Amino acid sequence: MKQALIEIRDMVKRYPMGTGEFTALEDINLDLCKGEFAGLVGPSGSGKTTLLNIIGSLDVQSEGEVNVLGRAIRELDGKGSARLRSHHIGFIFQTYNLLPVYSVYENVEFPLLLLEIESAKRHRMVMDALEWVDLTDKLKSRPAQLSGGQCQRVAIARAMVKKPDLVLADEPTANLDAENSHHILRTMDQLNRELSTTFLFSTHDQKVIQYLRRKITLFDGKVARDEQMNGVA
After folding, report:
1. Which domain range does residue 120 map to?
2. What is the pTM of this model?
3. How many CB atoms lie within 10 A of CB 1?
């Protein structure tokens, strides 16, 4: 039996609202294992991004247990959270979040600088990542010189360059047309299969959903369904 990479037990997330509280997530129980290609699916306001942020240690639950790679999210201080993210988690956002004054190469290299990896090894890792997403010919370009699809491929390379255990992707195709969306999704599916990196998406995009091999449907902050999928071959 595979060991769970993510373990969530009886998790609740509340936010202050006026004189009371708003419950964004309630009674969440999930396990995700290494190598899964899974998605949190549901309408806007269902709690997808909130759950993704807690798993990524960008937020913390109000009740219950959330363990990621053997670390209890609630017990991590700021340095512990930053270390978990920098060493083990890659993030892909719908708005790319690339540094506009940096080249493609420098944007992808940036996470490795935080890990203090020596120069020659950094170069090999960056070139490998750019080769994965077929952008070695754009390494000197800046984000403003790229298309939306190319910017998202840079974001994938940046997330994958350190070969993280987990990639969290929040609506990664929201700003892309169908052709670029499928290119991006095929790239992520291939990296998942080749590197056994666990991917967890937050999405309501049907193009993403058809690639998933596990679909976790959220509705009103609760898990409504958890089902295995065939995914696109």
Report:
1. 36-59+77-227
2. 0.92
3. 4
